Task: structure prediction
Amino acid sequence: MMMIAKPNEFPIEKAPKVSLFSSIPPVGEYLRGLWTAIRSGILGFYIGLLPGSGATTAAFLSYIAEKRLNRHPERLGKGALEGVAASEAANNAASIGSFAPLLSLGIPGSGTSALLLGGLMMFGLMPGPLLFTEAPEFVWGLIASMYVGNLLVALTCILAIPLFAYILKVPRAAMAPVIVTICILGSYSVNNNIFDLWVMLFFGFIGYFMNRFQFPIPALILSVVLGPRLMTSMRQAFMISHGKISIFFTSSISLTLILITVALIAYPTVRAMIKKRKAAAID
Result:
């Protein structure tokens, strides 16, 4: 919809000739995104520990956190290195973090780890605390393969950068039908129900108008994904505490997470007030 409504914002670029050496970022860009990658990696890892959260949730949350904490948030969404580093570091860290509950407790943290759980059970391996003692060579071999896999993926991506540049040559007339077809097949194949197509179209229009009037779309996506899980967890907490809200403040972990959430919500407002006072003082 955005490509049709604003074709000038999606121009067909001439594919630049990118060599292998020129595609490698300079040291300054690595240093600029280093702290962002570390912070988002830690956040993504802990999100990956939560059952059912997945790498997509980690990428969205890390991007939102970076937009709130970055000194120049207006650059994000326009190709800024920090935005890419935040999303991808959290994405990779969440994928690795989902292995912790899978191997130690037998609880899959994402759809991918659920498939791995089925594969392990097919080979007669039961994930859980005993897996580290019954099959230590498999566990530590799997952990070692993650290091090797990350290095191989990084090398493959760097070598393929000159090929990725040609994606810019794909015209909108060819890209838009492919996107629509994939959306239709994907939404229908979940439940084989035509009603899901209408749901997709309805929320497509909602997303278009939210983007048009500059409402944050990631917040809506996260609320749809995490909302039912939040209500289930709150109901369980109230059942444990017999309806007392104090359960959220007596636990040190819960209290810490609440304080972090409040700080992240209040930080942009406080920073804007500080900037306003500094500007008034200068005037």
